UniProtKB/TrEMBL annotation:
Belongs to the class-I aminoacyl-tRNA synthetase family. One of its GO terms (cellular component) is cytoplasm. One of its GO terms (biological process) is arginyl-tRNA aminoacylation. This is Arginine--tRNA ligase. Keywords: Aminoacyl-tRNA synthetase, ATP-binding, Cytoplasm, Ligase, Nucleotide-binding, Protein biosynthesis. It catalyses: tRNA(Arg) + L-arginine + ATP = L-arginyl-tRNA(Arg) + AMP + diphosphate. Residues 467-597 form the DALR anticodon binding domain. It comes from Entomobacter blattae. Monomer.
Amino acid sequence: MSENIYASFHEHVLDVLKKIIPDLPENILKRVELVPTRELAHGDMATNAAMVAAKAAGRKPQEIAGELAAGLCSVPAIKSAEVAGPGFVNITLEASVFLQLIPTILARKEQFGHAETPKNLVVNVEYVSANPTGPMHVGHCRGAVVGDVLANILHKAGYKVTKEYYINDAGTQVNALAWAAYWRYLQAIGLSISDEVFEKDVPGGLQYKGDYLIEVGEALKQKYDQSLAPEGKIAPVDLWFAPVKEMALDYMMARIRQDLSSLGVYHEVFTSEAAVLAGGAVEIAINKLQAKGLLYTGILPPPKGKQLEEWEERPQLLFKATQFGDDVDRALRKADGSNTYFANDIGYHNTKIQQGADIVIDVLGADHGGYVARMRAAVKALSHDRPADKPVDFEAVICQIVRVVRNGQPVKMSKRAGTFVTLHDLIDEVGKDAVRFTMLTRKADAQMDFDLDQVVAHTRDNPVFYVQYAHARCCSILRSAQDVWPDILLVEDASPANLLLLNDEAEMNLIKHIAQWPRLVEAAAATREPHRVAFYLMDLAAFFHGLWNRGKDNTQLRFIQSDDYTASLPRIMLVMATAIVLRSGFAVLGVDPVEEM
């Protein structure tokens, strides 16, 4: 039997269903699910098989469910199967199914839950990709954590994963950064120029006034002395722009990498937008679409909300995005011949296709929701002629805004004014692990408050503390067990009779939740929802703490019976299994488990 017992019994469900209704279409069978029941009183697992098959079979769901339940009862490891509601079947397994997992977990250690067979699919996960115009802030932080943990969970589920950061170093914002850095350079060499005076010469005004660029100004002074302002005043742009821009970008990217490192985020690939454009990636993608007959010159309707008198009709090079699910065709080249930002993004994403990605996932901020349909259309168009007519899947995970709260009041952020809460400050105050775990206590597409007071509280209301405390308690119990029996932690197996001593309801509830870990890994990967791992660990901690508390009232349930090795061994094995799964989950989250608190 697979260590993913849900996968094993899913096969049993399909086998029985196919006997009841032969020749069910494959698309129907793919919709059959086997999931943990919401209430433990309703059994261990529930399936929707009868409801999914009813229409194709031309029969009532409850009728099929009755036959399915009867057939499942003949499977040796199934204790009972009962029809529930409109046609669900609730399944209760023999306790031995769960108990036999304990030796498996002790043998596999943190590899328990890792995919037993690889998916043979390459996934590119691009996340953070913050403009290199300022330090990382908590808004970037959420995307960094979500993307990093999503990549980790995909790897654990058997995908081949690449973690990528796209450096936006070719747009107007990095030009604005260069002007701001030059302003700080002028200050560093002693020229007293107010931002109001300087702004008169700056295209679009001085956008980045934060103190973080003072260091760039000093570095420019050290390298160039006064040669970038040789007459003691603002020099012609051609003299200083390129070296200032280069140094400012290098400085900001070094700082971003340092911030990401402090968060435990390490990308395998950093791709420069400027390099992508210089390498002709946009032209390659446009030519590819042109060869497929997917481009034409046309005039787009005015954007929604525009008054007609404000709209100027201009012929542009358009991509037939509507053929691939978008609601409007998209411009790739403007009337003046320059490429749109979307064209640049198409060029970049085509490089991912060329590098062999089967799935491309972008982790984006809340303001990029409108970007998804057009990029999905482009990726599909660029790859729909792949072997077996299997285009590359483009997916987006949208991260909503994070509001930082202190003493019940929001802490304001403003990247350009330099008054934002930086990622560095956040980690310095509460620690990497608290930041990473807390960022996953809500779904990515839900807004969240990051409460600076709560994440450092030693209470059950702080999930970071609550889950870490469960692991620390496990370690404490295991140390105490070693004090009584020095070799007990070397035991990785016990007789079935010993394991059957784990028959209390609280013990079985904990074991059953541990057994869900391999399925949880698969589900979190399939749904692209890394927060599920944090939620699972919180529930696992609750089951463990509940059992620990039961032992305070009932001495027979204490993990260590110092005068009874036989009774203690299976309980110590259960604690070891709990600690292993907690550590496995922490590894996915990028959180360091603590052994003492």
